[in-house]
Amino acid sequence: MNDVLTVMMTGIVSVLVVTLLLHHVLRFTRLQASVISGLLSIAVLVPYLIMNWTGGDVAALYFSCNILTSYAYYLVGKKTNALKGKDGKRTHWVPITVFGFFVVLTILDGAFVFMAESGLRVQYVDQDGGVKSVNTRFPGEVPNAYHKKEAYFNAHKAKMREQAERGWKVRYQFEHNPPRMNEENIMSFLVVDREGVPIEHAEVSINLKRLAEQELNRIVPFTEVGQGIYEAPMTFERLGRWDFEVHIKKGDEVYQDVNDNLIEVIPPAKKTT
C-alpha cells in the first residue's frame, strides 16, 4: 500500500508542477496547461503500468488522481476563478458536478485498494478473555489455476495420469481430531502402494496455506516413524479453515495432492482451575 500512495502522490505533485510551469512560465492558458499536463501524465503512466502492473483498480486510481489534479487547476486558480464567468456569476453546475463525482469515485476506489492491499483488522475477545485480531487481507492466490498456462496444465495432467496408474494411497489424521489452535497437534500420514504395502524412506511434506494471511503459509516436513507412517507436530495460529497440499517423493516417483484438502481448527481447550 505504501508503494501505491507514493506513486499516487508523486503523480499529483508532478501534474501540479507541470501545469504551473505551462501556465505561468510558458504562458499557456489555464485550459491548455491543464489539458497538456493531463495528457502528459497519461503518457507517463501507460508505460509505467505496463512494466509494473498491479491491477486495474490501482491503474484507475492513478489516472483519476492525475486527471482530477489538472482539472481542479482549471476550475480553481489564484488569479482567475474558473468557477465564475466574466459577469461574476457562478458557472454552470455541470463541471462542478462532474468534478465532485470523480472525486467521490476516486476516494471509494482508494478505499477498496486499501482494503485489498492491507485488509481490515478486526479484534475480538476469545473464550479465555484474551484479545485476538483477524486480518481480512487476501493475497491474491488462486489455488490450482493450471488452466492459465496450457503447457503447465498438460504437464500436470500427464503427471496425474502417472500417479493414478501408480496407485499410491495416502491417508492422514490428527492425534486429536479436530486440531486445536495454539496447541501442538500431531499430524500423521499413512502411505501405501496399490497392494497396501507401506512405502518407506520417502520424503513427505505438506504446503500449509492460510489464504487470508499469506505470511502464515509454510512448508511442514514429516518424519518417518516406520511402517509407512510419517508424523509432524503442527501448531495453528488461527481458528477456522486451513488448506494444504501433499507432496511425497521416493526416488523418481512423486505423489502430489493439490486438491481441496481442508483442516478445520477449533478453539483451544478450556483451562481447568
From TrEMBL:
Record flagged with keyword Membrane: yes
Domain of life: Bacteria
Keywords: Membrane, Transmembrane, Transmembrane helix
Transmembrane feature ranges: 6-26, 33-53, 59-76, 96-116
InterPro entries: FixH (IPR008620)
Keyword Membrane: yes
Pfam families: FixH
Name of the protein this chain belongs to: Nitrogen fixation protein FixH
Organism: Wohlfahrtiimonas chitiniclastica SH04
